[in-house]
Specification:
The complex is a heterodimer of chains A (205) and B (481).
Chain A: H1 3-24, H2 28-48, H3 52-76, H4 81-84, H5 88-110, H6 129-138, H7 142-163, H8 175-180, H9 183-186, H10 201-204
Chain B: H1 12-30, H2 34-55, E1 61-63, E2 68-70, H3 72-98, H4 104-121, H5 126-144, H6 151-182, H7 187-197, H8 202-219, H9 227-234, H10 237-243, H11 246-262, H12 267-290, H13 295-315, H14 319-346, H15 362-365, H16 367-381, H17 387-401, H18 405-431, H19 445-463, H20 466-479
Antiparallel strand pairs in B: 1-2
Helix pairs in contact in B: 1-2, 1-4, 2-3, 2-4, 3-4, 3-10, 3-11, 3-14, 3-19, 3-20, 4-5, 4-11, 5-6, 6-7, 6-8, 6-9, 7-11, 8-12, 9-13, 10-14, 11-14, 12-13, 12-18, 13-14, 13-17, 13-18, 14-16, 14-17, 14-19, 14-20, 16-18, 16-19, 17-18, 17-19
Classes of the chains: A mainly alpha (205), B mainly alpha (481).
């Protein structure tokens, strides 16, 4: 077993354990942190496959942005996970049995058979992953790339259409209306004649 | 490899549709009249139909580096998809207006769903297939949940979303295994690689199982049918009308592209899987439909049975079988539009005509509508002068032609069982007395006229099925030379 395989099995073990921890952790914050670890380890495996750009993107986008947001949400929402997971331990033995059987079946079918492809040749050291990805993304795969963008647009439209509620008596001001206001509409002079206040003797006391 | 500028002409309908969907969104943000987005949607779909006809070519033509294929089968399906969407939009206008759902977001999501279908129909690559499926499914999840205050619709959307995500997972897992075996995502290249390796690779078949399971979920055939009744029942009827019609055309294209374009060397394997799924669907769909008292649920089970029947056409593996399957799905969409259109038409503000009892004595309340509904039901049952009969007949003919005689006998038996619940609706409409307090039926004229044409088309295509049959046969002949 060469060094790369050792690293791979080390990372894979951590990945599996952290993935398991995501679904078994009682505390949702722990689960989210375990997911961070899983993403980070997966990035390590990708680095091992010489997919540097993807690995860095995974760390930056998922670990750095998405999971931080997720942690915020988890901490702000007071979710009682135990309530949601009632019955988890009751179902666990049977679920484990099913999953175990499925794994055994898959292993029996796939064990030791190669996929019929020769191993890819490592690229030279000056090969730029980022440049190559950028090239195919915006040329050969531009159709798929645009479609993915449309899917994101649909997600935005759907999220807004399903959650935005226009309440009739909301106290909001239209910014355009606000900006358009002139001094004349807000302030007006009232010509008050100066008067001598009338004091009464009792009030003076 | 130098980059070649893709040819945009074949994708003109899609590009137009995408641009107009964005326009509908913008118009909704800027203008108040609610009918503008409705009219704009109809104009868009009509424009797409025209562009599909104008930009079509008779030979299969690849563009976008092989991610996109334009062939006659795809063009016919795209044309029918946009026409079905137009009909669905016209039927559902008053229903949406009554429930305060008639707004630009609804139509924008509907247009995005149509875009997803069109992408799916002309996909020639695993990536585009998957992206098309997701675009379609995401838009549909949102449409099902669109009636936000309805608990039933939200529940249906949640179920649809979770099962849809599971199905996408299965599909992707299968696709990645097949990629591992063949080293390509292009359907043509996959077929070529599979052909060279022969069909004895276990990993190949293993990937195929996952892909077929994912397909089964998306088609809604047994044993992956559990979501269909709940979603059909829970969604607002206007959404059910859309969901139950045009996407079936895309689903047919999905099966054709994936199994026939990409995995034809594994024909012997998927044929058996489809046979099992078809028999189970026809059994579960037809038997469970008998028990239903809700017409939307009943039609959902009937959809499961019809999709099983569609698989019979595809699994026969011959060009005649594919053409029969295409004819079947086209006529099914016509009947489904009519049936759900009728439910939408009879519903009014605060009332859903979804119980079978709501159809009691429809004949004495409105004889013409009862006649149309009766014709559609009899056609779904497969009675001779109507188009449903020819659809079933051509599928069975292709099946017997490929030597699947036992399967054909089973299909006929289950169709006989299925005829019971369609005939029950006819009986309810014609021989039961209507409730005394039933209000008079009134609806918009455009929907009524279109419903009449829809019903007459079922009859007319039954009397003269040859032109449509010829179109199906010719389009497949040209697409699979």
């Amino acid at each position: 077993m060469d060094f790369a395989s050792v690293v791979f099995y080390f990372l894979a073990a951590i990945l599996l354990l952290s993935g398991l921890r995501v679904i078994t952790a009682k505390n949702p914050v722990h689960a989210a942190l375990a997911l961070v670890l899983a993403f980070f380890t997966a990035a390590g495996i990708w680095l091992l496959l010489e997919a540097e750009f993807l690995a860095i993107t995974l760390v930056l986008v998922y670990v750095g942005a998405v999971m931080v947001l997720f942690l915020f949400v988890v901490m702000m929402l007071d979710i009682n996970l135990e309530e949601l997971r009632r019955g988890f331990w009751d179902y666990l033995p049977f679920a484990a049995l099913v999953a175990g059987l499925m794994i055994i079946q898959m292993v029996l079918v796939l064990w030791g058979r190669d996929f019929g492809l020769e191993a890819p040749v490592p690229k030279p050291a000056d090969y730029s992953n980022t440049k190559e990805l950028g090239r195919v993304l915006y040329t050969d795969y531009v159709y798929a790339f645009e479609l993915a963008a449309v899917i994101l647009l649909v997600a935005i439209v759907a999220a807004i259409a399903l959650t935005l509620r226009r309440r009739p008596n909301r106290k909001v001001v239209d910014p355009a209306w606000q900006v358009k206001q002139k001094r004349e509409g807000r302030v007006y002079m009232v010509n008050l004649k100066p008067q001598k206040p009338e004091y009464k003797a009792e009030d003076e006391e | 490899m130098p980059f070649q500028m893709p040819d945009f002409i074949p994708a003109l309908p899609e590009i137009f549709l995408l641009a107009m969907a964005c326009v509908v969104l913008l118009v909704e943000a800027g203008f108040k009249p609610k009918t503008l987005s409705y009219n704009l949607t109809l104009f868009t779909l009509l424009g797409v139909a025209v562009l599909v006809v104008l930009s079509g070519s008779s030979d299969p033509y690849y563009t976008f580096n092989g991610l996109f294929i334009d062939d006659v089968m795809g063009d016919v399906l795209k044309l029918m998809t946009s026409l079905a969407a137009i009909v669905a939009v016209i039927y559902s206008r008053r229903y949406l207006a009554d429930r305060n759902l008639l707004n630009g977001e609804y139509f924008a999501l509907l247009l995005f769903a149509v875009l997803g279908m069109m992408v799916l129909i002309s996909a020639s690559h695993f990536l585009t297939l998957y992206l098309g499926v997701e675009l379609l499914a995401l838009s549909l999840y949102a449409l099902v949940a669109f009636q936000r205050d309805s608990l039933r619709a939200s529940e249906a959307a949640m179920k649809y979303f979770i099962l849809g995500a599971l199905a996408s997972g299965l599909l992707l897992y299968g696709m990645s295994l097949l990629y591992g075996v063949t080293g390509s995502l292009h359907l043509d290249a996959i077929a070529h690689a599979l052909h060279q390796q022969g069909g004895d690779n276990v990993v190949m078949v293993f990937g195929l199982v996952f892909v077929v399971a994912g397909l089964g979920f998306k088609l809604g055939v047994a044993p992956f049918h559990m979501w269909v009744p709940d979603i059909y029942h829970g969604a607002p009827t206007a959404v059910t009308l859309f969901l139950g019609s045009a996407p079936k055309l895309a689903a047919f294209a999905f099966v054709m592209r994936l199994l026939v374009d990409g995995l034809s060397p594994l024909h012997g394997d998927w044929q058996q899987m489809l046979a099992v799924m078809a028999v189970l669907s026809m059994a579960i769909g037809n038997l469970a439909a008998i028990m239903q008292t809700n017409i939307k649920r009943m039609l959902a089970y009937s959809t499961i049975a019809h999709m099983g029947f569609l698989l019979l056409g595809i699994l026969s593996g011959s060009l005649a079988g594919f053409s029969a399957g295409m004819f079947y799905v086209l006529t099914y969409v016509l009947m489904s539009l009519g049936a759900f259109g009728m439910i939408t038409y009879l519903s009014r503000e605060g009332f859903e005509a979804e119980q079978l009892d709501d159809y009691k004595g429809l004949n004495s309340r409105h004889p013409w509508l009862a006649a149309i509904m009766g014709m559609i039901m009899l056609s779904m049952a497969g009675l001779p002068p109507l188009v449903g009969f020819y659809a079933k007949f051509t599928v069975l003919q292709a099946l017997v032609g490929s030597g699947w005689i036992g399967l054909a006998v089973v299909a006929v038996l289950f169709s006989l069982i299925g005829a019971y619940y369609y005939l029950r609706i006819v009986k309810i409409m014609y021989f039961d007395t209507p409730p005394a307090d039933a209000p008079p039926i009134q609806g918009p004229t455009d929907a009524r006229v279109l419903l009449s044409f829809n019903g007459l088309a079922v009859l007319l295509l039954g009397l003269l099925p040859q032109p449509l049959l010829a179109v199906c046969a010719a389009s497949l002949q040209l697409s699979y030379p």
